[in-house]
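F.,

This is the one I mentioned.
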């Protein structure tokens, strides 16, 4: 039987998720719950309904075509039964603007790779390829490993973006198929990590070291989102930087942003970070205090 996984997007022509121009496959589901997560739709392993108010034109097509959701307007807000299980086929094409959508679909490895291979000519020119991201790709091990392995068979360049929260056997196997590994290390302190993400970081760091042991030649890029009130201090960032240096890995700081806030609203959830912001000035100050050139 064809191996399937649940994804929430395939993004073409990305230039921020590995070398060259890339096609990024976003796996749905993550074992962490980082409070600053910019992709809350990536967290649940199940498909989920989203409604983005500013894209709704009030046409009421959903009210008529999806009675099982009990769609109704309360003022200008669309209310519906979010817990109801509906198929993608049922929801697809109902909303003319995409304000109401079902996020998440089951796909086979072959279906994904056909879409990835359609961008082949861009990979050749830019030395790009496939990036498997999430959510957490290692949380769907059978699918992710089959995808990476088959991409390798087809000579497609392979990058994985991970938060590191997966079984050691999966990390070990994935490392064998990869050309580049992007690995998030958000906090050095395990207790603080648990407080802000819902889990300690012991397994995450073990997997980072394991990837290096299995593949001494692998390009590893440690990425640290700099989050106000969480890790926006020299002490924490230096600890992570030291880990990256010890591993011969690149290290990059990513500036906190609030672009995901409206997605929480779409999912009927509160944005957990409130109104916090990180100024460009403070971010640059931290960067120049940790690095000489910004990226090693
Ligand atoms: S690891 Fe990434 S995808 Fe998972 S909750 Fe954290 S920020 Fe979101
Ligand atoms: S179908 Fe879409 S645009 Fe029309 S009312 Fe429903 S959510 Fe709004």
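My design for it:
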């Amino acid at each position: 039987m064809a191996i399937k996984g649940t994804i929430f997007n395939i993004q073409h022509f990305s230039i921020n998720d590995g070398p060259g121009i890339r096609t990024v496959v976003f796996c749905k589901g993550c074992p962490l719950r980082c409070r600053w997560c910019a992709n809350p739709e990536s967290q649940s392993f199940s498909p989920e309904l989203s409604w983005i108010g500013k894209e709704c034109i009030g046409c009421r097509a959903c009210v008529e075509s999806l009675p099982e959701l009990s769609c109704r307007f309360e003022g200008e807000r669309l209310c519906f039964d979010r817990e109801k299980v509906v198929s993608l086929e049922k929801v697809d094409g109902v909303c003319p603007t995409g304000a109401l959508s079902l996020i998440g679909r089951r796909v086979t490895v072959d279906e994904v790779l056909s879409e990835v291979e359609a961008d082949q000519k861009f990979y050749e020119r830019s030395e790009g390829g496939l990036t498997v991201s999430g959510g957490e790709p290692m949380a769907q091990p059978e699918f992710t490993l089959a995808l990476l392995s088959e991409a390798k068979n087809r000579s497609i360049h392979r990058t994985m973006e991970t938060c590191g929260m997966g079984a050691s056997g999966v990390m070990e196997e994935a490392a064998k198929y990869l050309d580049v590994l992007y690995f998030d290390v958000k906090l050095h302190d395990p207790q603080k990590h648990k407080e802000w993400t819902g889990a300690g970081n012991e397994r995450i760091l073990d997997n980072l070291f394991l990837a290096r042991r299995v593949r001494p030649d692998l390009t590893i890029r440690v990425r640290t989102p700099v989050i106000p009130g969480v890790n926006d201090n020299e002490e924490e960032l230096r600890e992570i930087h030291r880990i990256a240096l010890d591993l011969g890995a690149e290290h990059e700081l990513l500036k906190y942003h609030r672009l995901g806030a409206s997605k929480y609203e779409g999912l009927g959830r509160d944005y957990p970070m409130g109104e916090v912001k990180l100024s460009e000035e403070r971010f640059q100050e931290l960067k120049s205090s940790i690095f000489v050139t910004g990226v090693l």
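The chain is about 35% helix and 20% strand.

Talk soon.
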